Amino acid sequence: MEKYLAIAEILAYVRHNRTPLTVLPPDAVPHDEADGYRVQDALHNLLSPDFGLQVGYKIGCTSAVMQQYLGISHPCAGGLYMGGVHTAGTSLRYNDYVHVGVECEIAVQFANDLMPSGEPFTADDVATAIDAYHPAIEIVDDRYADWRSMDAPTLIADDFFAAGCVLGVPVARGKAPDLLSVIGRAVVNGTEVGRGNGADVLGHPHHALAWLANHLAARGKILRAGDFVLTGSLVQTAWLNAGDHVRMELLGLGSVEVDFKS
């Protein structure tokens, strides 16, 4: 619809020009979260020519620390684009973002499509479709003059802070540890800035994946073979300065690093 496209065009302009969004015009504010996801769909169509095809999803607000930090008590989803998926050890330009931050995550890649059966997806359903897990850094971008003034529908419309990810070496599902025992450490310039574990993600990261699968099914979409999903941060977002070095360590899954050069 024209309304959703008009909002998406504003958000795409911010993304392309790295101009912090102050406030959406009153007639361009998503009415509710369902409206926000409709705008997000329109935004994906606008961004794909420059950012690459959508290759998966991020799930936000799956841990208590992030729900409290953002003041949102339930998971929210955003898109991942091919151009924003990086390999471990890369260097990224700090000035390619408005205000870049990082989060410590367990990522998955799916081996098979998850086709709806008429019953809600469970954690066991999604587990059988997983190919591998990755230690991951989610890259988030505060694209707002004051993100605290933005409501959940607007954040959802704008991919819920998503700006990409850095993926470490994959660990095959059959060789992965019990995710409940995975301890994640966020380290910036050699200093630990956060710590959490797999149980912090809705009790188990597979619960977050089941939420996403059901959320997509309700919108006529599915998780497909090859899709990457960031299951949610184990720690509170760490906002960065130019030149910062980031390392995320996930016990049993490995580690992943990235530099944000000035």
UniProtKB/TrEMBL annotation:
Listed A to Z, the keywords are:
Lyase
User: What are the record's GO terms for cellular component?
Assistant: cytoplasm
Q: Where is the Fumarylacetoacetase-like C-terminal domain?
A: 99-258
Q: Name one Pfam family in it.
A: FAA_hydrolase
One GO molecular-function annotation for this sequence? 2-oxopent-4-enoate hydratase activity
Q: What is this protein called?
A: Hydratase
